Automatic annotation (TrEMBL):
<feature type="repeat" description="ANK">
    <location>
        <begin position="28"/>
        <end position="50"/>
    </location>
</feature>
<keyword id="KW-0040">ANK repeat</keyword>
<dbReference type="InterPro" id="IPR036770">
    <property type="entry name" value="Ankyrin_rpt-contain_sf"/>
</dbReference>
<dbReference type="Pfam" id="PF00023">
    <property type="entry name" value="Ank"/>
</dbReference>
<protein>
    <submittedName>
        <fullName>Uncharacterized protein</fullName>
    </submittedName>
</protein>
<dbReference type="InterPro" id="IPR002110">
    <property type="entry name" value="Ankyrin_rpt"/>
</dbReference>
<dbReference type="Pfam" id="PF12796">
    <property type="entry name" value="Ank_2"/>
</dbReference>
<keyword id="KW-0677">Repeat</keyword>
Length: 426
């Protein structure tokens, strides 16, 4: 009987049914209605329902699919329709994997079946799917070509909760950005009811996920750009509602995330937006975006300096300029920070170098005390690093002492030559 049902052989099925129950299950737990629903046998399914009253709620196993879920999964619109019209099926019941029929349809991006469910007053358009995801969340995280049409269909339904969150606190917009699905992000941003700044349980917003490079954070940059994935961040930047300076629970902004994941293309987009505060106070003990960049990302430091969006005279909560912060953090031997110091000095050649820290030390005195030979050399080359008696008192490094003793208080003509930086190992 089951083979006959799979092959849509109604007469043969009818012959079997004169001897066995219509709800008989095979070794896999499937009934004849399961077979008809999965294969899209509309006439046979209708016959089983209307003539024999086939049970619509039987599952192939305790957590398995019912006929309506099989029909939905395989996109058999006609069978889904007659099952809904039959009236006995519960269209909101979840299977053992916490999947709802509407959630399955949204995940499979089947527009006709989604429409059938939304037109049925019994269906909850916010019924929770896997991980407490509503159909809108499921569609937003789907890579299906038609996912954007499902999203639009759901957004047009006034019953749909556009602010719904899954167990991780992710909204539809967060999920679309998290997976890097540009068309879904654009569709959601077109809705005036979507809040593009609503974050997940860690307050991480769509812009932060987009800046970090989504789930595949180690994806090679050429491949990342070839697939236009950086355009997700660009779409968010173009929406004036998006707050690019919002801070998550770890004190990170979108710029922080772009820097942490070394996404230079995203750093460039954020810098060019003109809406990012690189000296933003992100909370006690937390670094500004500029400071995070200085500590590790030399290529990004160069990018920010070239963009003109980094104000080198602005101070942080401790009263330190970016240069003061870099000199203090460099220690005796930190190539990354030393290179950042060089880049800032090259940009700020005529800037103020006579600033003092809270402890009264000058830039040069701080570098001498830390024993940073290269930074001392850089400051002396500028002619702005005045050698003070206290600097010599702090000095415990023979190489630095020799530099201080031989300095004549004039800028070195080597300053404009790359030879000096090659000599410094920078």
């Amino acid at each position: 009987m089951f083979e006959a049902a799979k092959k849509d052989q109604r007469r043969l099925v009818e012959l079997y049914l004169s001897h066995v129950s219509v709800d008989l299950q095979n070794a896999d737990g499937l009934t004849a209605l399961h077979c008809a629903a999965g294969r899209g046998c509309y006439d046979l399914a209708k016959f089983l329902l209307e003539v024999h009253g086939a049970n619509t709620e039987i599952r192939r196993n305790p957590g398995g699919f019912r006929p309506i879920e099989l029909a939905t999964f395989f996109g058999n619109t006609g069978v889904v329709n007659i099952l809904l019209e039959d009236g006995r099926v519960d269209p909101n019941e979840r299977n053992g994997m916490d999947e709802t029929p509407l959630g399955l349809a949204a995940n499979r991006c089947n527009l006709e079946i989604v429409r059938l469910f939304l037109d049925d007053d019994r269906v909850d358009p916010n019924g929770q799917h896997i991980n407490s995801m509503t159909p809108l969340l499921v569609a937003s995280s789907s890579f299906g070509i038609k996912s954007v049409h499902v999203i639009n269909m759901l957004l047009e339904d006034s019953r749909v909760d556009v602010h719904a969150q899954d167990d991780d606190g992710c909204t539809a917009c967060v999920l679309a950005a998290k997976h890097g699905i540009l068309r879904n992000v654009k569709a959601l941003l077109r809705s005036p009811h979507i809040d593009p700044n609503q974050g997940d349980n860690n307050q991480k917003t769509p812009a932060m996920y987009a800046a970090a490079g989504y789930i595949r954070q180690t994806e090679a940059t050429p491949n990342y750009l070839k697939r236009n994935k950086h355009l997700v961040l660009k779409a968010l930047i173009l929406d004036e509602r998006v707050d690019l300076n919002k801070v998550d629970d770890n004190g990170h902004t979108a710029m922080h995330w772009a820097l942490r994941k070394s996404r230079q293309e995203n750093v460039q987009l954020l810098a060019d937006s003109g809406r990012v505060n690189l000296n933003q106070d992100c909370g006690p003990g937390r670094r500004t975006p500029a400071e995070a960049c200085i500590l590790k990302h030399n290529s990004c430091t160069q990018l920010l300096l070239d963009s003109g969006c980094l104000d080198l005279s602005e101070t942080n909560s401790q009263g330190e300029t970016p240069l003061m912060f870099a000199v203090r953090k460099a220690g005796s031997d930190n190539w990354d920070i030393e290179r950042s110091v060089w880049l800032i000095l090259e940009k700020q050649r005529c800037g103020r170098l006579d600033l003092r820290y809270d402890n009264g030390l000058t830039l040069l005195e701080q570098a001498v005390q830390a024993g940073s030979q290269r930074i001392v050399c850089m400051l002396l080359f500028t002619g702005k690093g005045t050698v003070t008696p206290r600097a010599k008192i702090f000095c415990s490094d023979e190489v630095i002492r020799e530099m201080l003793d031989h300095h004549r208080g004039k800028p070195s003509r080597w300053w404009t030559s790359r030879t000096v930086w090659k000599w410094l190992g920078l």
